[in-house]
Design brief:
Oligomer: single chain
Largest sheet: none
Strand content: under 5%
Length: 198
């Protein structure tokens, strides 16, 4: 009985070794067949990681330099070389700086130029400042029609006040109705409708 058991055990071991060698041969064939693809993939992953690290380092350096330039420009706004360098390093930061200077100096021409800024809020705030400076119902109305206008409700209130000054109470009343109930200016609009517009 033990001889039969031993023979079965040896046969099982041989079968296991055959399976192991068969798997090793299949794996070796797979590796030989796809070796270039696997090496190429590994190289691509390494290059992507290195590229990402280099890009992040470059961006950090660019941002640091742009911030230093902004600090220098705040100290000396007449340095046109620094202003031009800031524009090339960070056009968005340059537009924000230009907007702050235009507001401080009430420079309407610069604000008109900034209306087309790629920095969304700078373009919107510039549009509002130009419309507000015009003190014109039509200009303020054009601003309020813009999608996602930041100061839409304020422009509506200003339009209504201008209309009230022109004795156009009915039109002012219609403007004030455009202000949403959840707006921070809803109480102002309500007060103007009850006390200012007759």
């Amino acid at each position: 009985m033990s001889l039969k058991h031993d023979i079965e055990m040896v046969r099982d071991e041989l079968t296991s070794e055959e399976k192991f060698f068969e798997t090793a041969v299949v794996t070796e064939k797979f590796i030989k067949k796809y070796k270039n693809v696997m090496i190429g993939s590994l190289v691509a992953v390494v290059l992507l990681v290195i590229g990402d690290i280099a890009y992040n380092a470059s961006e950090k350096s660019r941002i640091t330099e742009a911030n230093k330039l902004l600090t220098a420009i705040v100290s000396d706004s007449n340095n046109s070389a620094d202003v031009a360098r800031l524009d090339s390093l960070s056009p968005a930061l340059h537009d924000v700086w230009q907007y702050s200077q235009a507001i401080a100096n009430k420079d309407i021409e610069t604000l008109k130029e900034l209306q087309s800024s790629k920095v969304t809020f700078v373009g919107d705030l510039s549009s509002y400042a130009v419309a507000d400076n015009a003190a014109n119902v039509k200009a303020l109305g054009a601003y309020t029609e813009k999608q996602e206008a930041i100061f839409k409700d304020l422009a509506i209130v200003e339009s209504a006040v201008l209309l009230m000054n022109e004795n156009k109470a009915e039109q002012a009343h219609e403007k004030l109705k455009m202000i949403r109930e959840n707006s921070p200016l809803a109480n102002v609009a309500s007060a103007l409708m009850h006390y200012g517009v007759k």
